[in-house]
UniProtKB/TrEMBL annotation:
Keywords: Kinase, Transferase. Belongs to the adenylate kinase family. The keyword Kinase applies. One of its GO terms (molecular function) is AMP kinase activity. This is Adenylate kinase 8-like.
């Protein structure tokens, strides 16, 4: 799956295998007090009080994510065709700092060209 972030006049497509996206969605937890996002595998809070407040967001089950992926893949080609001249693909199956850096680098490059 790829997620499209549009910032005219350029776009960044974040690509990751469907299995990775399903795992990320299924492990997502929200702190009901602060709204902070955690993950059961990748970013579990060390504070027991925070752990007690965590809830699974509605619609983040494995089954719900698979349904969204089917719909997404059905429309992906048409979406990407619209942005073919201004799109940068970034592998999102890597540390978030690397993903952010690559996406920001592309967008900065485009802004500099304007």
């Amino acid at each position: 799956m790829s997620l499209l972030y549009n910032s005219q006049p350029s776009s960044v497509v974040l690509e990751a295998p469907d299995t990775v996206l399903v795992e990320r969605a299924a492990g997502k937890r929200i702190d009901t007090k602060t709204g902070d996002v955690y993950h059961t595998t990748f970013d579990w809070p060390g504070n027991p009080e925070v752990q007690e407040r965590l809830e699974e967001p509605e619609g983040q089950s494995e089954e719900a994510m698979v349904q969204r992926l089917v719909l997404y893949h059905r429309h992906l080609h048409g979406i990407l065709r619209c942005y073919s001249q201004v799109v940068k693909t970034v592998n999102a199956d890597q540390p978030k700092a690397d993903v952010f850096s690559q996406g920001k680098g592309w967008l900065s490059l485009i802004v500099d060209l304007l």
